[in-house]
Amino acid sequence: MKYEHIVFDVDGTLINTARNILTALKDALMATDGLSYESSDLSFCLACTSAVTLERLKVKDPDATLAVWIENEKKYTDMFYIFDGIEELLERLRGSGCHLGIITSRTHRELDLIFDALPLKQYFPTIICSDDVPSPKPAPDPLLKYMEMTGADKSSVLYIGDTQHDMICAASAGTDSALAVWGSHEKSVPADYHPKTPEELGRLLF
Length: 206
Known about the structure:
The chain is α/β, with parallel strands linked by helices. Helices cover 44% and strands 12% of the residues. It has a five-stranded parallel sheet with strand order 5-4-1-6-7, sandwiched between helices. A two-stranded antiparallel ribbon has the order 2-3.
């Protein structure tokens, strides 16, 4: 296998969380600020940290809105699920001796919400969240930190994500990239690979 380190984004890559995130945010904005949005108006948040999202929306009290947003995501856990084929892919990669990692725009608190509901954390010995680095994606900082922590050479790392921010992060850090077309809303973003399904990604890797 070409890559010793396979690193994944979470939302839109491992897990389909779009409906959960957007519904939870819509309800939080109405509850805390009386703001009414359509999901399509908030879709930009799927590629941003929560802090950047709330700054862009100019909410009155970001901490209060974030707390409600997170509680809403917990309330709507029935709205997210692991993409078909992901668990099988992770089992195969782990069995082959690959080192698996996560780089996400979620904070650790926000990621725990996902992992408390779905059985994926066991696969990932190295996890980098937005609150672990000075500058989150699209800056290269998360991937650079991953390589620093694991001792990985950039030529041995493949980063898989669903947004332009993910692909920019990989390019800036000097690693190869794969756009998770199965979960992406930006299917024409430049990347080294464009697998349409987790199964297709497995065929590319093996």
